[in-house]
Amino acid sequence: MLNEARPSYHRRNMKMSKLLVLALLATSAFAQTAQHSKELDAAYPAAHELYLDLHQNPELSSHETQTAAKLAERLRSLGYEVTEHVGGTGIVAILKNGNGPTVMLRTELDALPVEEKTGLPYASKVHTKDDAGRDVPAMHACGHDLHMSALVATATIMAHSKETWHGTLMLIGQPAEETISGAKAMIADGFLTRFPKPDVGVALHVGNELPAGTVGITPGIYNTNADSLRVTIYGKGGHGAAPNTTIDPIVIAAKTIVALQTIDSREVKPGELAVITVGYIRAGTKNNIIPDQAEMGLTVRTFKADVRKQVLAAIDRVVKGEAMAGGATREPLIEHYEWTDAVFNDPALANRLRAPLETALGKQNVITEEPITPSEDYSYFVEQGIPSLYFSLGGADPDKLAEAHKAGTSLPSNHSPYFTPDVEPALRTGITAEVAVLRYLLAGK
Question: Which residues contact 136 (CB under 8 A, 6 or more apart)?
Answer without folding.
Answer: 60, 113, 127, 128, 129, 130
